[in-house]
Design a protein that fits this description.
Blueprint (H helix, E strand, L loop, with lengths): L1 H35 L7 E4 L5 E4 L3 H16 L6 H8 L1 H23 L10 H16 L8 H38 L15 H38 L12 H34 L14 E7 L4 E4 L2 H17 L14 H7 L16 H5 L2 H11 L6 H8 L7 H4 L2 H10 L4 H19 L4 E4 L2 E4 L1 H44 L8 H16 L1 H21 L6 H11 L1
Parallel strand pairs: 3-6
Antiparallel strand pairs: 1-2, 3-4, 5-6
């Protein structure tokens, strides 16, 4: 009884499974035609929700059908519908087409993304030309078409042409246009010395004249080189072979690209001008608070005596005038650079567009870049700051020169008159000594001055002033010592004459029995002993005077006087 029950349950389950299998098999066979209809879809489609990007229009249900058909064929006891068998036989072809088309669309996106933004509008015609070659895949060709291979070959050929064009244009832009524009924008239009170097005003003016001349020639050449590169790029793009059904590059787009790079050239020159003027401003800046350290000096300025006072050579006004001239020279670098013709299409492009017509000549009269650069607000601001950069240090320089006011008597007072007033007071030797020591102290004080003193961008050198003041101090010292020396020499000669006479008297020959001669010598000795104290008193002031002279003017004595002093010391 139990076995019969199990048999009935088994038969019932088998019947149910067979019915289920039959129903699903019939449903699968009925769906084959619906799935197969997906092969009649076009190869490519634009997705409206994905910015109209191209996608492969392949129904994934077909791949499922192929897999199911392969499984059915392996079972062997089921008769496969002809439609499924045909799809299964073309499995490899569909997969190859799908892979190649997917790869092609990826390459299409890669190439189109290589187009620079500035060239996107001008490249529209070239991309439309490629899309025109792709149009059969969007309109007429299906997955069962016989000429898909030919379609792929035409698309790949056109894509290769577009890629070659994009690579050529990008290479030209990067190496002949953008690189040169960058070189122009980073160019310094002013020649500034190293931080450790100082220049004189004449050297600065000469440096700027040479630099501006060479830089202007360089900029003129670069402007022409960039313009020629832009014209060549436009010529390459216009010479591209388009399908007759695709409109070529419009003249308005050509003018727009030329205008864009004309503006880029202007911006590069403007950047170079701003950088150069800012560099000058930073080197000449007198505002120490802007930096942690004092900026290096720029100009070498000599402090000199002009008979009236201490003056700077060159003066602040002269330096400011030279700086102003340098700023103007920077601006004038762009005065010889002609602005490009952005009204007429380049000649090489005209010859491509209309090979049978002579090229239209440009209108000319575009002017130079100077007018626009000189009118830039930031340029004017920096120029105004530069025109007062050194002038603002004038008060600081005047304050520094005030320390030399205490020495102005050296060149303003009359030496002869002052010495006469000194003599009128009947000075003692101590007074002379004090006066001469004052002049020596003055020389020592001058020699302790620092040779250089920096004020903003100016390095004030006191070497010439120190030399002049030392000479003046020495002149005053010699004037005061001259009379003292004269008096000392006269008294030395008097004493020497007295000693000479006395010596001659003492050396008189006394013969045997000559009492008169002996009495003469004895009287002379007696006279010398009586005047010994007086003679010593005459020697003391002479020694004092010569000691003063030796200490303050050791080289004032001549050879005869030195010989006389040597004999006097003996």
């Amino acid at each position: 009884k139990d076995a019969k029950k199990l048999i009935r349950m088994y038969n019932k389950m088998a019947k149910t499974l067979i019915e289920f299998e039959t129903l699903w098999l019939q449903a699968w066979m009925n769906s084959i035609e619906a799935v197969k209809s997906g092969l009649q879809a076009t190869l490519i489609i634009k997705h409206p929700e994905d910015n109209n990007r191209f996608h492969v229009n392949f129904d994934p249900e077909i791949l499922m059908l192929i897999r199911e058909a392969r499984c059915m064929s392996r079972m062997g006891d089921i008769k496969m519908p002809e439609a499924a068998r045909m799809v299964l036989l073309q499995e490899q072809k569909f997969k190859v087409y799908y892979s190649e088309l997917s790869f092609f669309l990826r390459e299409y996106r890669r190439v189109t993304q290589m187009v620079k933004p500035i060239m996107s509008n001008m490249m529209k015609s070239h991309i439309e030309n490629l899309e025109y070659k792709m149009r059969p895949g969007m309109v007429s060709l299906t997955w069962t078409s016989m000429n898909i291979e030919t379609f792929f070959a035409a698309c790949w050929k056109e894509l290769d042409k577009l890629e070659q064009l994009v690579v050529t244009v990008n290479d030209l832009m990067e190496n002949r246009i953008d690189a040169n524009l960058k070189a122009v924008s980073q160019l310094l239009l002013v020649n500034l010395p190293d931080d450790s170097s100082l220049v004189s005003l004449d050297e600065f003016v000469e440096m700027q004249e040479r630099h501006v001349e060479s830089t202007t020639n360089f900029l003129v050449a670069k402007s022409l080189e960039i313009e020629n590169a832009v014209n060549d790029m436009l010529g390459i793009m216009v010479a591209f072979e388009f399908d007759p059904h695709v409109a070529g590059v419009t003249e308005s787009e050509i003018i727009k690209v030329k205008t864009h790079y004309n503006v880029a050239m202007y911006n590069a020159l403007l950047s170079a001008t701003k950088r150069s003027l800012r560099a000058m401003k930073m080197r000449l800046s007198s505002n120490y608070l802007e930096r942690s350290v004092q900026p290096p000096a720029f100009f070498e300025v000599e402090l000199q005596l002009d008979g009236v006072g201490v003056r700077m050579v060159p003066g602040v006004e002269d330096i400011q005038a030279a700086i102003n001239g340098g700023a103007v020279a920077v601006l004038k670098c762009s005065k010889r650079i002609e602005a490009w013709d952005t009204v007429t299409i380049p000649k090489n492009v005209q010859l491509i567009l209309n090979p049978n017509l002579p090229p239209v000549q440009g209108t000319g009269g575009q002017g130079t870049f100077y007018d626009r650069i000189a009118a830039d607000k930031e340029i004017l601001k920096v120029i105004l700051l530069l025109t007062g950069s050194v002038q603002s240090t004038k008060n600081m320089c005047q304050e520094h020169l005030k320390q030399f006011v205490k020495y102005e008597w050296c060149w303003k007072d009359d030496i002869g008159k002052k010495y006469a007033e000194f003599q009128a007071e009947e000075p003692s030797l101590d007074d002379f000594e004090t006066k001469l020591k004052y002049f020596v102290k003055l020389e020592t004080e001058i020699n302790t001055w620092l040779p250089q003193h920096q004020i903003s961008a100016l390095m004030l050198s006191s070497t010439s002033l120190s030399k002049s003041l030392t000479e003046l101090a020495n002149k005053w010292k010699e004037e005061y010592a001259k009379e003292l020396h004269k008096d000392a020499y006269a008294k030395l000669e008097q004493v020497f004459e007295m000693v000479k006479r006395t010596r001659k008297r003492l050396l008189r020959e006394v013969s045997s029995g000559d009492l008169d001669a002996l009495a003469y010598v004895m009287n002379t000795l007696t006279e010398v002993r009586q005047k010994e104290s007086e003679i010593e008193l005459e020697f003391i002031p002479i020694e004092h005077m010569y000691r003063i002279l030796d200490e303050n003017l050791p080289n004032i004595m001549g050879k005869d006087e030195q010989d006389l002093r040597s004999m006097y010391k003996k």
